[in-house]
Amino acid sequence: MLKAEQKFYSPEDYFELENEAEYRSEYFRGEIFAMAGGTPNHNRLMLNFANLLNAAFKGRSCEAFASDLRVQIDKEKHYTYPDVTAICGEIVFAENRKDTVCNPVLIAEILSDSTKDYDRGSKFTAYRNIKTLRDYVLIEQNRIHIEHFSKENDGTWRLREYFNSEDMLILESLGVGVPICEIYSRVSFT
Asked: pTM surpassing 0.70?
């Protein structure tokens, strides 16, 4: 059986295609992956979390963005669109780009059946290479369950899990607490 030829794209090819595309895609080691559309729960969770962060950041130099902000993980190999990205201080853009950032302090992904293994596995491994990243938050959309990985002072990552709507997601590095019940506001588990 013949193997189909796989096309390799340079980062420059990727950016050129992205500029013309009607959909978003991620780039990893020369391959381009189209991003799937989200469910209403996915969108509610993403917007709720970004809005709650921005409310908590009021009067500070931090800002949260939802889904359309591309993050450079590795200049030559990896670009993604996290569901929520937070940046504190001046935004650092990728070289020659005004649509791709390099300095997130927080990244959050809303888990789906098709992406949860990638989000917990190789994507998180890649995200850990971002020097500014302090918090990685995974939010399930079919039940209340949040996984919060925080980077400790010694460089290790600590996991805290939340299963109760009465709990508070504490983001120590940002000095922010977010009520779990508000993250899941209007989310339906049917």
From this structure: yes
Instruction: State how far the alpha carbon of 160 is from the alpha carbons of 43, 126, 148, 172, in Å.
Output: 23, 20, 5, 12
Q: Closest by alpha carbon to 16, among 6, 7, 5, 27?
A: 27
**pLDDT tens digits for range 14-71:** 777 777 776 677 777 777 777 766 789 999 999 999 999 999 999 999 999 998 899 9
Per-residue CA distances from 190 to 31, 46, 88, 142, 153 (Å): 36, 19, 37, 8, 41
pLDDT digits (tens, 9 = 90+) for 123-148: 999 999 999 999 999 999 999 999 99
Domains of the chain from N-terminus onward: 39-183 (3.90.1570.10)
